[in-house]
Amino acid sequence: MPTMTLKKKNVKASLKKSVYFFGGGKADGNESMKNLLGGKGANLAEMAGHKNLRLPVPPGFTITTEVCAYYYQNGKKYPAGLKEHVLAALKKIEALMDRRFGDPENPLLVSVRSGARRSMPGMMETVLNVGLTQTTIPGLVKQSNGNERFVYDAYRRLIMMYSDVVMEKAAGIEPKEDMGIRRRLEHLMNELKKEKGYKQDTDMNVPDLKNLCALFKAKIKETLGKEFPDDPHEQLWGGIGAVFSSWNGKRAISYRRIEGIPDEWGTAVNVQAMVFGNMGDDSATGVAFTRNPGTGENGFYGEYLINAQGEDVVAGIRTPAPVNEYSKSEHNKEMVTLEKGMPHLYKELYNYQRRLEKHYHDMQDIEFTIEKDRLFMLQCRVGKRNGPAAVRMAVEMCRERLIDAKTAVSRVTPAQLDELLHPILDPAAEKKAAHIAKGLPAGPGGACGQVVFTAEDAVNWAKTGKKVILVREETNPEDIEGMRAAQAILTARGGMTSHAALVARGWGKCCVVGAGALDVNAHAKTFSVNGTTVREGDFISLNGSKGVVYQGRLPMVVGSEDNPNFAAFMKLCDQLRKLGVRANADTPDDAKKALQFGAEGIGLFRTEHMFYGKGAEEPLFKLRKMILSADEKERRTALNELFTHVKADIKATLEAMAGKPVTIRLIDPPLHEFVPRRPEEQKRLADSLGITVQDIEERAQTLHESNPMMGHRGVRLGITYPEVSEMWVRAIFEAAAELNKEGKKALPEIMIPVTCDVKEITHQQEIVKRIHSEAAAKFSVKQIPHLFGTMIEIPRAALLAHEMAEVCEFFSYGTNDLTQMTYGFSRDDIGAFVPDYVEKKILPNDPFNTLDQKAVGELINIGIKRGRSKRAHLKVGICGEHGGDPKSISFCHHAGMNYVSCSPYRVPIARLAAAQAALEDRKN
Amino acid sequence: MPTMTLKKKNVKASLKKSVYFFGGGKADGNESMKNLLGGKGANLAEMAGHKNLRLPVPPGFTITTEVCAYYYQNGKKYPAGLKEHVLAALKKIEALMDRRFGDPENPLLVSVRSGARRSMPGMMETVLNVGLTQTTIPGLVKQSNGNERFVYDAYRRLIMMYSDVVMEKAAGIEPKEDMGIRRRLEHLMNELKKEKGYKQDTDMNVPDLKNLCALFKAKIKETLGKEFPDDPHEQLWGGIGAVFSSWNGKRAISYRRIEGIPDEWGTAVNVQAMVFGNMGDDSATGVAFTRNPGTGENGFYGEYLINAQGEDVVAGIRTPAPVNEYSKSEHNKEMVTLEKGMPHLYKELYNYQRRLEKHYHDMQDIEFTIEKDRLFMLQCRVGKRNGPAAVRMAVEMCRERLIDAKTAVSRVTPAQLDELLHPILDPAAEKKAAHIAKGLPAGPGGACGQVVFTAEDAVNWAKTGKKVILVREETNPEDIEGMRAAQAILTARGGMTSHAALVARGWGKCCVVGAGALDVNAHAKTFSVNGTTVREGDFISLNGSKGVVYQGRLPMVVGSEDNPNFAAFMKLCDQLRKLGVRANADTPDDAKKALQFGAEGIGLFRTEHMFYGKGAEEPLFKLRKMILSADEKERRTALNELFTHVKADIKATLEAMAGKPVTIRLIDPPLHEFVPRRPEEQKRLADSLGITVQDIEERAQTLHESNPMMGHRGVRLGITYPEVSEMWVRAIFEAAAELNKEGKKALPEIMIPVTCDVKEITHQQEIVKRIHSEAAAKFSVKQIPHLFGTMIEIPRAALLAHEMAEVCEFFSYGTNDLTQMTYGFSRDDIGAFVPDYVEKKILPNDPFNTLDQKAVGELINIGIKRGRSKRAHLKVGICGEHGGDPKSISFCHHAGMNYVSCSPYRVPIARLAAAQAALEDRKN
Question: In this predicted complex, what is the ipTM?
């Protein structure tokens, strides 16, 4: 809305100047005028006119985006005076090119291109060779030294493009029988080629092309009921109108919806003198990068084609040659480089690209054309790069003092950094492949492997060296070894908090869960999905970062965890960021990985995770005994048996963190989650408790809940069964005290989950104080260093944070649960409607992926403000999965948190995002 | 805490005056000094000293509550000067009574009693006959005209009381072998009576009593190691100390915890001249009420006993006589009234009680004693009354201009009003009975009946005229007829939102759900609970307002719905209240009931309730077809079939409300709730859809959710299946339009449930607008009057209320869900921990019964403030069950809501609570 207002004002204020000229070492505009001239127009002006550049850009002019806005606000009419301004600018081009528009002897041809504020590649229209008519054809033949083939080829291209873009699309004519004019003309051309036995377009000779142009014109008359215009000015204004029209074409509108580009922005139109790379062997065209976009190395890297047009390089019909030795590859190493073939032009180009990088302080993507031995610069823009290249360029440019540290940090997106941390499916291959199913992105990176349906098979196949993907309806703790052995995990059920998702995220393993369309038949060892059946041993590929499943083997791109620039880049980030970064880690191994990734502590140690995975059978069995105890006495007995395991587990993690803080959450999930389902396990448990299997089932039944997420869990367990909290707290204190006795540091932070009232916390605090005294006495020390705090994950806790802070030394926001309660969304059940919500734009995204700053964010802000009103130095962090999401991390920074905590594999991302958030501070 | 501060200040500022005298037509204190003198002391001072009263109160003095505070703050020492003040006051009593404390000839005896700011009946100690010693006994014999039996009986009572209260309890002596001194002395007395063959205490003659006193003293020496004191002053100070001590006795402390009385308040001590109603046939004692406490009628009502002490009237050993004709009952109609037996004293008493009621402007509960033909007034206080009496008194006193309307309204508690609306278990009987189980109070009132275990049995037994209580593990829609036939419903499972609870509340039927201790065996037609087995046909009784289950038949107290004063009282309430009162009603019958109870509209019409109950088979079947449809086409077919039913249902309710607003909520619960479980129903459905039963099960399985409360429900259904919203909205508009055509008024308010984002509402609003246009066109009208709004029941909706209010004409707070999300409590699962929370004082009460003003209340306030910031006249109501809870209604009033909505049976309560809330405004 503000944009609209601004726009209207601008339209009135500055409509005087609607055409900006560039060329001949001068320009009316410059790079800073992207809003008015579009990205393309602004960059052309900069290249042409800036005193440090003044590159040989074919002269031209830009009709502003304001004209576009005017055009749509005034029933598709142009503002008064536009025609005159355009004609005047055209005169300037004529002067600089020493050619005249429509001149039979020495004609000027122009291109008409779109150019919006932000790049919308391929979404709008272009018309080339405008100005070519029956009258001007002879003049162009003369210019090209009698190259009639070139001229008639240009003419047939103009006819095809113009009839499609201007005469059909912009005129709003619906194609008959769903076949557009372009396809009809292509059909004519293919028939001619067939008739003559030609394979390539270039096989057509001059008479063929002349014949074709005539056929084209007749077909156009027949189909569209109008003549192809033979007046250069009619062609020009047709082209301009078509570009403005294409702003509201279907493709452009839907692209804007997806990218969030406002309709009011509009496009500029760039009219520029045509130059031709296909005028003979002294002509050429090419694209180049000022540094290697694949590796980031500081080398001039590019390709070119002799006697070709720009689109031929992109189209990939001919193999382009390397511009220099550095750009050679296996495919083109025998070809003549530009450096060798046209050394003076290469030198000129090389100097220009150096100048451009220095001027723009970033790697540039350049298009150039050589027309009859003369170099023209057609475009420059910031070059796209992959993750490793982005990191390397940032680090090296900073070292070269081309940019400062802040700029270096801002140059790498979190997604690019992530590429260094996980192998991923090759994005190019993914673009071409059709997925067979979608699910939730539960574990990062990509994977490719053979399907197996049981944990046992996963283990056995993996032993023989096969890469497998474990496919299950749902996983459970008994599948853990198979999950570990597999490259990736795919489940048909379960949400982002399901067993598979939790385990995979903890390991940084690729995982897709809740792919509901999958019909898994573990017995038959097949799964079917939308009519496709996949059998054991078949290959599938997963994109765990997006939750997509592909059939077959997609190529992988391996990340470079040991990238030498990675550490240097992280150091830059760490210098800038203010937010601490911790990891969510549940085992000593996780803790080590977290340290390796630069975590400054553990923000969430989920004690219940010791009951999953290898070696968990005994602790799990004892936990189950505890859960199914009939009374406090039985429960205390089971807890005593469990104590040793819990203490050992906590001690190992505290030791791994060597004195860095470890936030240990007391037991959180509803107990029924651990109840055994398999008969043999029920039997063993029944025997051990001296009861029947039926008793087990009955006791389990009483634990059943309608909405376990809001049921008997977290601190609620610790209040009904204080002895459970006691055991865990004792394990924490004794583990820490033992380490202290061994001369090691340990800093446990005891965290109470799922609280909604300060009295829950004081209740648990009494237990903590009592057990602390007992443990301190046992180890003959005054004090076992520790902190005491709570999760803030229930809206009421956030609202009553001032009360909570009276007894808590720290808060840790559990934004998974806080999002659930704030939205009333069960994370395990959103599959039924949230995808639909996002598609219908009711929600901008899944609020479990990116923190909702409006409401969840307000509760966080309220909690911090009220908490710190009672305890100024209250430590505040986040341990929900938003802690690894860059946008959410930015929010946490601005909210004044002390740290974020995320999975070990997200720690580098978080360090980067925290640094980028700190940069925003300076901007504002 | 403020009390404490105030207290300390007071202690210092006014300790000069620690003793307040009353008697002889004067008093140092008055009724307004309850904080200082306690309730008893203040009332005694008022009766004795106020110029309008000056009643013959035995003279005495009050030691202030500040002394008590001082006593506890100073290591149980008295402030300086207290002894002197007490002695001085004692002298005044002596003068007025013309007797002297400790005098052998004409001794003064005194009572020492507690008296706190608020009555704590039976929680603290009393010592009577203080001053009776070996020395003064002869003097008392003389005063009583030689009645030695009277004197020695008084002496043995003093010894028993004093040894217990002063020598044991106040001294902090732990009873040996768990047997206190009082029981030991009683044992001695019983042995003596057994030995002599006496049945009653009064059988003992003077030698017996003398002997007993000696035995008592010896036992005291032996047990407590101290002599019973024979010094009157030692007795007096012992008594005073014992009363102060009893403030911190176990009983008193636990009573204060329950009633929320601060520990700092302390008790006063009242020392007063003893007068004796048991000095002969010219003596008597009695209690009376200035109006009939059972009916509220304006008649002087009381009982008395000749030659008896006050405690004898209460103890019920002898049948008391009526004070006048009016007070006669079946049991005592032959006895001599005070009016007849002592006409001059009756006349005096009658005048006093008139004076007291006029003075206090309320019905008074009076104690009096006649000692040797002389009337003494011992106590007066506001008399307790039952519900019907409270309403009648309020109405009549207002009519008599004894009180104004505001006072009248403030005189009736919501619980008293509720007594008029439901039959209840006799509270007296309930007090004595032991419950066999507890559950959740799901439906109001009480019930008593024979247990049946199936709906069929309930219907059949009821046909034969039996009163039955339907006991089920859980109920479901198929039980509906049995539920209707039964007096009450009892279930072992399910929460306050379970089927049984919803249905029973809607009907105002007594219901207890989730009595988890019950083991129901419907097959064997028994249930067992804690070792008791109850069989079909056995009687049980339920208190549905408290959730208690009793074995056997408890007597019922029938409410008086047609109480003639009820309407008059409601009118008083309606004059005062500002808050509107609506009802939650789901059927035309409910709507009629709601109107009858004074509802001004329907605040919540739950459309899904048409699928429960009689005649619901067809609609339910069609709903199920819709739910299990495989695609939009199938779904639209089923919806079309359903349309007629839905329209008819809505139309009937709109018609019943005759133009009063009816808030119709679009379908709310998760669809899987309606999926059929019974094989024959699954079969019928499968046949109708042309699929297999297995298909039905599979489709049902895909609807399964982990946490349905936060799943695919409410507006989320309307967004994924817009055709569902369409059908309901069309039914609403066509129902209203048809009524309009018939010349009837209809005002539907379309309400979107479970929203968390304004875009959900705009999405649904588009549907509403479109269907409105279509319906208006169909009925050829411009406009079908309606409002459009949303439930606010998700925290995010409250926080974003400013956005919601842009498109909503009203908000209705769904505080059931809002409480669930704000606390993270699933209402169906709180049974596992909330009772424990309340018991451990972590929560003051179940937040689903009384609205949590701290956090849920803040969200409500935020929502109203932000909502009205965008739409000043936004209509705001509440439709959660808190809408029927008086404390919560008070909150709603102060929050500025327009109305509350509750079950029809709670409407009168809500009208009263709203009026009382409005009264609070004037106070503040």
Answer: 0.81
